[in-house]
Design goal:
Layout lengths: L3 H15 L4 E6 L11 H6 L4 E7 L2 E6 L4 E5 L4 E7 L8 E7 L3 E7 L5 E5 L2 H11 L10 H9 L5 H6 L9 H11 L12 H20 L40 E5 L2 E5 L17
Antiparallel strand pairs: 1-6, 2-3, 3-4, 4-8, 5-7, 6-7, 9-10
This protein binds a DNA duplex (16 and 16 nucleotides) through helix 6.
DNA sequence: ACAGGATCCTGGGGGC
DNA sequence: TGCCCCCAGGATCCTG
C-alpha cells in the first residue's frame, strides 16, 4: 500500500509521539512477517529510548540509544501507529510496544508483506541499506544521471519508476499519476527518452509526491498515518483507479493495462506518444 | 545483465 | 448464503 507519501506521513505523525520515549514491554505476535523475527530483539528493545525516526525510500528507520536501529517496512497493508493502551487491539496486530508515557506503539499488517528488523549498529544499518540497493530520494536525483539511467534501458517508463534501485519511494499509484502529469505513455521505452522528456518526468514525480504528502498520502483501503488518520490524495487521482472514467483534461476514457506486472492507468490521448506504439497486453 | 512471471498472504467485491 | 474468480499502495526469487 504505502508509497513514499504515506511512509513520510507515518514518520511525521510518529516523530512527536516517539522521539524521547522509552520502550517498555514488547509483545510480538506469533505469525511470521516478511523477515524472521529474533526472540532476542525483545529484550534489546525493552528499555531502549527512541532518539529519531526517519524515512528512506519506503523504509521507516527508528534510531535507538545504545546504537540499535529498528527498520520497518509496511509492505502492502502495514500500519504503524501509536494508540492509547486501552484501545482495543485490532486483528493482525504483530507487535505492541509499551511507551513510557502510558501509550503504545503498534504494528498491524493484514497481508504480512511488511517486516520488522532490528539492526545492532550504524554499520549494520548501512549494510542493510546497501544490500537493498536503494536509489536516491526523488528530489536528490541529478537530472543528468536520471536521463542517463533512463536511456540505458529498454524497459518501459512504468517499470523504471517502480524500480527502487533507480529512484526510491515511487510505487504503483504515484508512477501512474506522475506519467500522467508528465504527459508520457507508461509503455515508452527509457531508451528513446530525450533530455527534456526525462526532465519533465522527474519534475512530475517530485510535484506529484509533494502534492500527495500535503494531503497525507492516499487511502484506498488499509492505509492510515501514524496517528490513525486516513490520507486524502485519493480524491485527486487523475488516472489511478479511474478505468473507464473520463480523463480530467480531455474526457477520453482512462485505460487500464498490465505493465511490469502491475495495473497501469493512463489517458490514451493525453499520454499519446509517437514512440509508444509497442504492443501492450490489454486486461 | 536484463526482463517478465510467480510467489508470499488476507480480505473485499462482483457475478452466478 | 455460498462459491469462485479477480483484485489490491510491495519486494524478492526464479526462469529464459
Amino acid at each position: 500500500m504505502p508509497e513514499l507519501p504515506e511512509v513520510e506521513t507515518v514518520v511525521r505523525d510518529l516523530r512527536p509521539a516517539l522521539v524521547g520515549r522509552t520502550l517498555t514491554a514488547i509483545r510480538r505476535g506469533r505469525k511470521a512477517l516478511r523477515r524472521p523475527w529474533k526472540k532476542a530483539w525483545e529484550s534489546l528493545l525493552t528499555g531502549a529510548r527512541v532518539e529519531a525516526i526517519r524515512r528512506r525510500g519506503k523504509w521507516i528507520l527508528l534510531d535507538l540509544d545504545r546504537g540499535h536501529h529498528l527498520v520497518v517496512h509496511l509492505g502492502m497493508t502495514g500500519q504503524l501507529t501509536t494508540t492509547e493502551t486501552s484501545a482495543a487491539e485490532q486483528t493482525h496486530t504483530h507487535l505492541v510496544a509499551g511507551l513510557d508515557d502510558g501509550r503504545q506503539l503498534r504494528f498491524r499488517d493484514t497481508r504480512r508483506f511488511g517486516s520488522l528488523t532490528l539492526l545492532a549498529d550504524a554499520a549494520a544499518l548501512d549494510n542493510f541499506l546497501v544490500r537493498a540497493d536503494l536509489g536516491p530520494e526523488p528530489w536528490d536525483l541529478d537530472p543528468r544521471a536520471w536521463h542517463e539511467r533512463l536511456t540505458a534501458t529498454g524497459r518501459a517508463l512504468k517499470a523504471v519508476l517502480l524500480d527502487q534501485r533507480v529512484v526510491a519511494g515511487v510505487g504503483n499509484i504515484y508512477a501512474d499519476e506522475s506519467l500522467f502529469e508528465a504527459g508520457l505513455h507508461p509503455a515508452v521505452r527509457g531508451r528513446v527518452m530525450r533530455p527534456e522528456e526525462s526532465e519533465r518526468l522527474l519534475r512530475a514525480v517530485v510535484t506529484v509526491l509533494e502534492r500527495a504528502i500535503a494531503r497525507r498520502g492516499s487511502t484506498i483501503r488499509d492505509y492510515v498515518g501514524g496517528s490513525g488518520l486516513r490520507g486524502g490524495y485519493q480524491e485527486e487521482f487523475r488516472v489511478y483507479g479511474r478505468t473507464g472514467a473520463p480523463c480530467v483534461r480531455c474526457q477520453a476514457p482512462v485505460l487500464r493495462v498490465q505493465l511490469a506486472g502491475r495495473s497501469t492507468h493512463y489517458c490514451p490521448s493525453c499520454q499519446l506518444s509517437a514512440i509508444s506504439d509497442q504492443p501492450v497486453k490489454k486486461s
